[in-house]
Amino acid sequence: MIRIVLCDDQDIVTEGMQVILSTVRGFEVIGVAHDGAEAVDLVAELNPDLVLMDLRMPIMNGIQATREIHRTYPAVKVLILTTYDDDVWVFDAIRAGAAGYLLKDTPREQLIAAIRGTVSGDTHVDPKVAGKLFGQIARSASGPMGDTTFGEDLSDREREVLKLIAKGLSNADIADALYLSKGTVQNYVSSIFMKLEVTDRTQAAVLALKHGLGQAWG
Fold first, then answer.
1. Distance between CA atoms of 73 and 67, rounded to whole angstroms?
2. Pairing of strands 27-33, 124-125
3. Does one domain contain both 29 and 124?
4. Which CATH number do you get for residue 31?
5. Looking at 11-25, 33-47, 59-73, 195-209, which range is the least confident one?
6. Which long-range contacts (CB under 8 A, 24 or more apart) does 190-196 make?
7. What integer pLDDT is reported at residue 100 of this predicted model?
């Protein structure tokens, strides 16, 4: 059972999401917050698997709430669901620790798949904002080839896996691409997270792209 907290300041949105998610086997909406501060409190009280988080809200916005949840409860995934596709919002959300970023016009089946995938450790970024995210990362890179010392303790195979994470591939896709078992890929991913001192695929991908590792590896 995937236990979900909804956070949006508009009742019509939370009520609609409850109706949609209640029809999905294996999903349970265990709490509803109407601002970021309420979301943080609910996470502390209920320990959900995932928070479906809006961005622009009173008292505490979604960026601030995501940062606090990620810092204090790193096992809880935050999936942004918003109308805002501005590149600053997108980049700030990912930097705050969001595991994915979707727009509210995302089709129902894609939203359901994104929730399941996010809880499993995959990254889901709406194609409409992915270009803006990667553009921001590219502009913040430290140089044409990035930081040549970053990630130097990764093995060659770990670099291959990280490169594919940065391209948005799931563990299953990476396993197929590198002719490895899913369990072996998961072990590599866990090792990469430990060495890069990150807790999810989104952060690993952002770091890889920011430091030009994708370009350096071709």
1. 10
2. unpaired
3. yes
4. 3.40.50.2300
5. 195-209
6. 191/158, 192/154, 192/158, 192/161, 192/162, 192/165, 195/151, 195/153, 195/154, 195/158, 196/151
7. 86
3 state SS of 146: coil
Measured distance CA(105)–CA(109) in Å, rounded: 12
List phi, psi (to 5°) of 52: -95, 105
Q: How far is CA 209 from the centre of its chain?
A: 15
Token look-up 């009742």 returns: 11
Same domain, 111 and 159: no
Could you list the residue range(s) of the whole structural domain that residue 164 is in?
141-217
CB within 8 A of 194, min separation 6: which ones? none
For residues 94 and 133, is the Cβ–Cβ distance under 8 A? yes
Helices 87-96, 127-140: axis angle to 10 degrees equals: 80
Instruction: In whole angstroms, give the CA distance from residue 117 to residue 120.
Output: 5
Question: For residue range 91-104, what is the model confidence (pLDDT) as tens digits?
Answer: 788 888 898 889 88
- Cα–Cα distance measured from residue 133 to residue 112, given in angstroms and rounded to the nearest whole number: 22
Tell me, yes or no, whether 174 and 119 share the same domain: no
pLDDT tens across 142-163, in order? 444 444 566 778 888 998 898 8
Rounded CA-CA distance 60/91 in Å is 18
Total count of domains within the chain: 2
Q: How many residues does the structure list for the chain?
A: 218
What is the identity of the amino acid at 32?
V
